From TrEMBL:
Residues 1-66 are annotated as: Disordered. It comes from Natronosalvus hydrolyticus. GO terms for molecular function: ATP binding. Keywords: ATP-binding, Nucleotide-binding. PROSITE patterns: KAIC (PS51146). SUPFAM superfamilies: P-loop containing nucleoside triphosphate hydrolases. This is KaiC domain-containing protein. It holds the Pfam family ATPase. Residues 1-14 have a biased composition (Basic and acidic residues).
Amino acid sequence: MTRKLEDDWFERAIGETASDSEEEGDAERSDSSTAEMGAEPGDAGEADETTDVGGSSEPLFDDDFGSALEGVELPDLDDADSSGDAIAGFDDLDFDLGPGDETDFDAELDTNLPRIDIGIDGLDRMIHGGVPERSLIVAMGSAGTGKTTFGLQFLNHGLAQGERAVYFTLEESRNRVINSATEKGFPFDEYLEEERLAVVDIDPIEMANSLTSIRNELPRLIEEFGASRLVLDSVSLLEMMYDDRAKRRNEIYDFTRSLKKAGVTSLLTSEASESSPYASRYGIVEYLTDAVFVLQYVRPDDFRETRMAIEIQKIRDANHSRDKKPYEITEEGISVYQQANLF
């Protein structure tokens, strides 16, 4: 049995610094995950399930989480890097590189919604004007596609501009998250010292057992901390804690509502379904979120080496590219080659 989550879990996380030693926590997390999670529940075909909980004929999930903020100017994209002619590591692929001024997204939306950039080179140019603030985003993919890096890069972009952020990890220890970020050149240790970043590691079993308390406290704590960006890595581990399908859906639905109430732009990472890269493991989060980014392996027969590609499945209230674009995970994070086309 894991220890009960303490009431001051968030305050303790904010007060800690990158110098705290957590080697013992790494060992406990590994043992707890192996011993208590057990086998993953079987949910074959769950992504196609349409039966509503409680027999209601109304849709289970709200279709619109947008919170329009009037009177805020759109970000200036004139200085965005439009380069992309040189693509290291992709010389052997059959790419069609279009002219630099060519665009593949729809016409501009007439909207005053304030926008933010994700912070990933190339990907932001695939989104016209950026993602609406206070959106709920999911980065979805199989193991090794860079979901955690996506989240770290998303937070670092905001922190580099003076924002405040929170990172929840259900998979790694606090120290390991900080080390992973700093190795990529993201100075999370400095942000922690400046008290602009909180990194909170929670065992998924503990979080599931205390989710009601966390959900009720989260909006107030986020507001007091002043965070504008939040990452949860990963929501799939939280979903795994519920054997009952209806309870799983209701708990995740209520948790995402609390994130919207907190007023932050939130990014969830999620494992993709084994049957389709375009569906999450339990078929829930893609319907709850405002934006879905699909990260996947591409293994065409005529390619010698497996490549990775990213696709924007949806962004509410924003025009975006419909194409699948190649990307790489480098020592500095994720780079999307927006001007390259995969065949």
